[in-house]
Design a protein that fits this description.
811 residues, alpha+beta, six-stranded antiparallel sheet
């Protein structure tokens, strides 16, 4: 294949069959291809661009992320590279015709880091390995610190003359011996990273830290070996060991908290099992195979507690499934024989056999994972600002430390170097680089667990500033379907007979009004009575057909079902309900009106409470719809919305939205995601609502997977809370440096205290962000919202059906 070096050893990941395990084909712009193109990519991967995700090992900060991005972008054939310092993951868009995975992974290795495919086994093994190493380094540092403090204690409490020169020298040597393994083992990664930076002529956050450690150890070693020299006045093993212990404590806790908070996204993405039991058609036995080897038509057995690895249909067994990831509803759903299951949902009750119907990029789970991976690697505006100032700030830190050492050197060289160490350590901008991404990713993980996907992390910042929220009507404030409210029949026709005839035509159409008529005709015998022929459907108007009565009571005639104009009758004036008219051609050619059916949209039960909650939080609510003005006003009155516009075309919706923006409003749009693309893209921030959203093509910043409208105000509140946390983190990081740098330069802050301050500042930022993982904000003032979530998976009660006869004059 082009791009492969003949001398290079064979690489497993260069096998095109392995690429789908950690990536997917996409367009050159980076957008995912349709499912059929993904499957086509199995056979001809070099014909498309690939979007791959890898886990990174050895990185610690925003400067590391920038270094890896630069290394990847320098590789010919790599079109795009995005690295997240918070999640330690990277997204690489590359062209198989010009480069192979082993080549751009080697570029990462040459930069001093290691890239591994972001597959479940690799990601889990890497996290466990990193956690074990961090724990061992922390334990060694803690043991050495306690021993060194024990040897340093006599020097603190001794009076002049209590310690002889020999005893003091013995304690120094003992401290040096105990400190040495800590410097070699616990501090090893800092020194390795710093040497790598020097070799590559760059600056990262490990460089000033490693310099501080090295200077402290060299000064103390010089004082131990040459007590009469310029550095023999004092040794600083206690400060060094305390500093290293505090620093490693902070980093280990950050690692644990990152796995629990920002790592929540990764936990959702790694739901699929590594392997599954597949039936061998020849022997009828089940054998365990890798999940990625499944193809459509396979029969698999899924055990209780396992996730379904693919979309399919249950062929044997009954169970309940947890579909919280796909719907946001945590209540288990019954899945008997013949029902469909989705990849990523959990089998909760008993073993079942499933016939595989969709795998890989064909599944909705794959679309969800693609959106989450993309969001986790995005950098909000505030994070980009922190990244831009990270490297110049580090250079300024090195200069400040050098100037401080030069200032103090004439009076006391040993003290001068320790002042420089304190400046190097206390000003390390770890907290600044973590302030924004950790909070944003924690909020995104919290939303994902409740059924809201964040497609754009920048949307959280925009949503926090929203003052106006615009709803679409159909599929958003109302459910996708309609309900039959009343039947008005002509003289001589019973309601059941009219419904039966209308349903006989309507069952051939997928229009929401037709589905409502079919659903209301509960007697199948009434539909079977009619024989329909020559049926035609005029899009958006109605149906027409030749109908004969199997009982012989009604002669064959032409029948129309649809709008009043389509049925050839005059529309009823003053009615807010949508009416479907049934008419027929009489024996003498006169058009007769047989029945009118009043349909109403199914308003979500939680809609009034949601609108009230938004208004209570200072968010103005408006309604834009393409439906008739009367129908829109009726829904708005039920939901409590005062500002309404009906009969809006897609362009009209966009113009109304732009008018609000021109008036200085920050506008959020909530639509069904199916036909609101322009207005969703034009809003400052947008929600696509409903399960029918085509995720890969959605223009929204947030995608609500479930069926609860209450998630909208809760997401607004969480976004506001997230922005407050980000601002608190940034103010803390800036204030900490503004206070401690002068103290360090003045010589009033020892190295151990600088290390403690640095570790605590980073830890405080992560702990503050961790508060966002508690869950979505509650709305106690509106108890109706509590019931909204519990009924999210079910349909709200339909209005009562009135089957009373009403005499209509023939037309």
């Amino acid at each position: 294949m082009a791009g492969a070096s003949p001398a290079a050893p064979p690489q497993l990941l260069d096998d095109p069959q392995e690429w789908l395990a950690f990536g997917r084909p996409c367009t050159p712009a980076g957008s995912p291809l349709p499912a059929d193109a993904v499957e086509a990519g199995r056979g001809h991967p070099e014909s498309s661009t690939w979007d791959s995700h890898v886990v990174l090992e050895g990185m610690h900060c925003a400067a590391c992320a920038l270094t890896i991005e630069d290394a990847l972008r320098a590789v010919p054939g790599v079109l795009q590279a995005d690295v997240s310092a918070a999640t330690h993951r990277a997204r690489v868009v590359w062209q198989p015709g010009r480069v192979l995975p082993s080549q751009w992974m080697k570029a990462v290795l040459n930069a001093g880091y290691r890239a591994m495919p972001a597959m479940d086994a690799f990601a889990r093994a890497q996290r466990q390995r990193e956690s074990r190493r961090a724990l061992w380094r922390w334990l060694v540092a803690g043991f050495c610190m306690m021993q060194v403090m024990m040897y340093a204690w006599p020097a603190y409490v001794a009076q002049p003359g209590d310690l002889s020169g020999e005893m003091e020298q013995l304690l120094r040597w003992a401290s040096w011996v105990i400190t040495l393994p800590m410097v070699v083992f616990s501090c090893g990664p800092f020194f390795a990273s710093a040497l790598r930076d020097v070799r590559l002529r760059r600056v990262s956050m490990d460089l000033p830290v490693a310099l501080g450690m090295a200077i402290t150890f060299v000064v103390s070693t010089a004082g131990t070996f040459d007590p009469s020299g310029i550095f023999g006045k004092e040794v600083y093993y206690d400060s060094l060991t305390m500093f290293v212990f505090f620093l490693l404590t902070g980093r280990w806790l950050e690692l644990r908290l990152r796995d629990r908070t920002a790592g929540a996204l990764e936990a959702v993405m790694n739901r699929l099992p590594d392997s599954v039991e597949r039936r061998d058609d020849a022997t009828g036995t089940f054998a365990r195979v890798a999940t990625r080897r499944l193809v459509a038509g396979d029969t698999i057995r899924v055990l209780p507690g396992e996730a379904f690895p693919a979309d399919g249909c249950i062929t044997a067994g009954n169970t309940h499934a947890d579909e919280a990831l796909l719907t946001g509803e945590s209540t288990p759903v019954a899945r008997p024989v013949g029902s469909h299951v989705t990849a990523g949902s959990y089998n909760l009750q008993s073993p079942v056999e499933v016939r595989v119907e969709g795998t890989g990029g064909q599944t909705r789970f794959a679309q969800i994972v693609a959106l989450m991976e993309s969001a986790s690697l995005q950098k909000p505006r505030l994070a980009l600002l922190a990244d831009r100032i990270a490297r110049p700030f580090l250079v300024a830190v090195l200069l400040a430390a050098g100037l401080a050492a030069a200032w103090w050197w004439p009076s006391d060289p040993g003290h001068a170097l320790m002042v420089a160490v304190a400046v190097l350590i206390v000003t390390c901008p770890c907290a600044l680089s973590l302030a924004t991404p950790v909070a944003m990713l924690t909020a995104a993980g919290t939303l994902a667990r409740r059924g809201v996907l964040v497609r754009n992390l920048q949307g959280l910042e925009a949503l926090a500033q929203v003052d106006t929220l615009v709803f679409d009507k159909t599929g958003t404030l109302t459910r996708d379907g309609m309900a039959l409210q009343a039947v008005h029949t002509a003289q001589g026709w019973a309601a059941d007979d009219a419904l039966g005839l209308a349903a006989a035509l309507a069952r051939h159409s997928m229009h929401p009004a037709s589905r409502a008529v079919v659903a209301a005709a509960s007697a199948p015998a009434q539909q079977a009575r009619w024989c329909v022929a020559s049926l035609q459907e005029d899009a958006g108007l109605g149906l027409s057909a030749t109908v004969s009565d199997n009982t012989g009571l009604v002669p064959e005639c032409k029948v129309w079902l649809g709008s009043a104009r389509h049925a050839g009758v005059a529309p009823e004036q003053g009615s807010s309900a949508l009416q479907v008219v049934l008419s027929a051609q009489g024996p003498d050619g006169v058009l007769l009106e047989l029945a009118r059916f009043d349909l109403v949209e199914d308003l979500r039960s939680e809609a009034p409470a949601v609108v009230a909650a938004l208004q209570q939080e200072g968010v103005a609510v408006q309604l834009l719809s393409g439906d008739r003005v009367q129908a829109v006003q009726r829904v708005a009155a039920q939901a409590g919305i005062a500002q309404v516009q009906g009969e809006c075309s897609p362009q009209g919706k966009l113009e109304a939205l732009q008018a609000l923006q021109a008036g200085g409003h920050q506008v959020a749009m909530v639509g069904d995601g199916l036909n609101d693309g322009p207005v969703l893209a034009g809003a400052h921030v947008s929600f696509a609502f409903g399960r029918a959203v085509p995720l890969a093509q959605s223009q929204a910043d947030f995608v609500v997977l479930g069926d609860s409208l209450a998630l909208v105000p809760q997401t607004v509140l969480l976004a506001r809370r997230t922005l407050r946390v980000v601002r608190q983190n940034l103010w803390w990081a800036a204030g900490y440096n503004a206070l401690c740098v002068p103290l360090a330069v003045a010589g009033w802050m020892p190295a151990w205290l600088a290390g403690l301050g640095m570790a605590l500042s980073s830890l405080l930022v992560v702990l503050n962000a961790a508060r966002l993982a508690r869950g979505l904000p509650a709305l106690p003032a509106l108890p109706a919202l509590a019931d909204a979530e519990t009924s999210a998976a079910g349909k709200a009660p339909q209005p009562p059906l009135n089957l009373a006869k009403t005499t209509l004059e023939p037309v």
